[in-house]
Amino acid sequence: MVDVTAPTGENAVTLVALTAPGGSFRVPFNLTKVVDRFGPGTYTVQASIFDASELDDAESNPVQITV
Q1: Distance (Å, rounded) from C-alpha 36 to C-alpha 26?
Q2: Which helix (H) or strand (E) holds 59?
Q3: Number of domains in the chain
């Protein structure tokens, strides 16, 4: 799961994906639509792995994107 938090602190997007056997994943989304809805500023993106059969639960470090 990937959560994108808007500059206001609101949850802008939650995306769900399945992980590959090595734990990688790909979750494309349209950032332009998110910014159109929530406005410019610094967004926080964080990925989480949970309920995976071959991987432990984990969270990435938050990454900030300024647009």
Answers
A1: 23
A2: strand 58-59
A3: 1
